[in-house]
Design a protein that fits this description.
- The protein is an alpha/beta fold and 508 residues long.
- Helix 2 links the parallel strand 1 and strand 2.
- Helix content is 41%, strand content 20%.
- The chain folds into three domains: 276 residues, Aldolase class I (TIM Barrel, Alpha-Beta Barrel), CATH 3.20.20; 88 residues, no CATH class; 123 residues, Double Stranded RNA Binding Domain (2-Layer Sandwich), CATH 3.30.160.270.
Length: 508
């Protein structure tokens, strides 16, 4: 689609769009989140390095600690403009002044529900209070952004009356908050178009995500001429949060061709920091910064990605400091697996590759998520396995429990002949190995010199990797390795792998 034609015919985008980040204020109001001063400084520094225009560093009137954190961040002399929030009360405005800040974001509820149930004020009192706050802040040399809280549920004529008086009082920017996230793209289109046409002053928007539309509505507002957007990292904020910084900035750049001058390669790192400090982990499918944002499993998709990443990615992961992942599972194709093996410099012949590919598919079908470590272990096991197998496992039965000796019944095919034996042991693995030794005693005697068991990844479904060393009476030694979700099975297959190698040595 021709975006330039759309912008010309259907949009009214401002020449300059400002990003107002409120992670440290509205983002901190996420239920369960409380940041220390040092943590706020870490986030503020990353926001400044990213290049956001404004950082709302806090609500100074809420506590002495908040004033101190604002002062400490202000002392860092960032390029970003620092902002303090205040109600339309002189004591709140004084707290912003005491914080050494020069930009204030002051607000007052204007909707019927706020007037009647929260503020207990009539329309005239609302306008009088809002105007007094703006004038008081301007008299103290502050740049003033005024928010009509719950603007999107305020009667349109009254909202315009409030803005008329606020502009006359000297406000620098008018902010339209969708406080409970009730806007839709079409209502956003109408509201911002009307306000932009009526007021010759910069318009800002602060949209909440209650219906999952915050970013979409913010984009529409920008299309209709909004000069500034309030955002938070990872979309944090009250209830379901706010417009997401990373989603908005990347969409503007990639879909609209609007480069805001931000260093987008810092977005993934910033997201991770905020997630770690707030304790709010992002869903894996979170756009732009989620773990799966550039992850691919489907064989068809991976084949396309390996040829040209644009086939199934709208942007490159490098654009936001992320990385691409090829995920292994039941949808994995041969090209995906070959790419992964190449990444770890593992060379398999066709037979070995087919064996590994089959194991990956079987594990995927069982619901197992195959990690890179799992793949490496499976591939190394295949590389090290005996190519000639005179002894093959044909069956296994186990019984174990309190008050009874662990017993294993093992069926082997030895040089084409099936044999079966049962043995006890201190545990099911020991019992199984004892049964194997009894079955092969006519062929050879072995000694298990070394046994190592390791869970490759965490979780009860982790693959078990078993490595063994066996020897025969002639002091021939061989290693055996197996990877399996069943620890007992991994142990038996590792021992049999080692025995087959010993038999090969003896035959030379």
């Amino acid at each position: 689609m021709d975006m330039e034609r759309l912008k010309k015919e259907y949009m009214n985008i401002s020449d300059k769009i400002y990003i107002f980040d409120t992670t440290l204020r509205d983002g901190e109001q996420t239920p369960g989140v409380a940041l220390t001063v040092d943590e706020k400084i870490q986030i503020a520094r990353k926001l400044n390095n990213l290049g956001v225009d404004k950082i709302e560093v806090g609500f100074p009137a809420s506590s002495k600690g908040e004033i101190e954190s604002c002062r400490r961040i202000k002392a860092l002399d960032f390029d970003s403009t620092l902002v303090g929030l205040a109600r339309s009360l002189r004591k709140d405005i004084d707290a912003v002044i005491d914080s050494d800040l020069e930009y204030i974001h002051t607000f007052l509820g204007t909707s019927p529900s706020h007037r009647d149930y929260k503020l207990k004020m009539n329309k005239e009192q609302i306008i009088e209070t809002a105007v007094d706050g703006v004038e008081y802040a301007k008299d103290h040399g502050l740049k003033v952004e005024f928010s009509a809280e719950d603007a999107t549920r305020t009667e349109y004529d009254f909202l315009c009356d409030v803005f008329d008086n606020i502009v006359d009082a000297g406000a620098d920017i008018l902010d339209i908050p969708d406080t409970v996230g009730v806007l839709t793209p079409i209502t956003t289109y109408a509201l911002i178009s009307d306000i932009k046409e009526k007021f010759n002053i910069p318009i800002s928007v602060h949209f909440h995500n209650d219906f999952g539309l915050a970013t979409a509505n913010t984009l529409v507002a920008i299309e209709r001429g909004a000069n500034q957007a309030h955002v938070t990292v990872n979309g944090l904020g009250e209830r379901t949060g706010n417009c997401s910084l990373e989603e908005l900035v990347v969409t503007l750049k990639a879909a609209y061709g609007i480069d805001l001058g931000l260093d987008t390669t810092r977005l993934y790192s910033l997201s991770n920091l905020v997630g770690r400090l707030t304790g709010v982990k992002m869903p894996v499918n979170k756009p732009i910064v989620g773990d799966n944002a550039f992850a691919h499993e489907s064989g068809i998709h991976v084949h396309g990605i390996l040829n040209n990443s644009s086939t199934y990615e709208p942007i490159s992961p490098e654009m936001v400091g992320h990385s691409r992942r090829i995920v292994l599972g039941k949808h994995t194709g041969a090209n995906s697996l070959k790419s992964k093996l190449k990444e770890y410099h593992i060379d398999l012949d066709d037979e070995q590759f087919d064996n590994v590919f089959t194991q990956i598919k079987e594990l995927g079908d069982s619901g197992k998520c195959i990690t890179d470590d799992d793949l490496v272990s499976i591939a190394i096991t295949e590389l090290s396995s005996a190519r000639e197998t005179r002894i093959v496992l044909k069956g296994l039965g186990l019984s174990s429990g309190g008050g009874v000796s662990p017993t294993a019944t093992v069926k082997l095919e030895i040089d084409g002949e099936e044999k079966e034996a049962a043995s006890t042991g201190v545990g099911p693995i020991d019992a199984s190995i004892n049964a194997i030794q009894s079955l092969i005693s006519d062929t050879m005697n072995i000694n298990l010199e070394e046994y190592n068991l390791e869970a490759i990844t965490g979780g009860t479904d982790a693959l078990a990797e078993v490595f063994v060393v066996t020897s025969d009476p002639d002091d021939n030694r061989s290693t055996g390795r197996s990877t399996n979700q069943d620890i007992v099975m991994a142990s038996i297959l590792a021992v049999l792998d080692s025995i087959n190698k010993l038999l090969l040595i003896q035959s030379v």
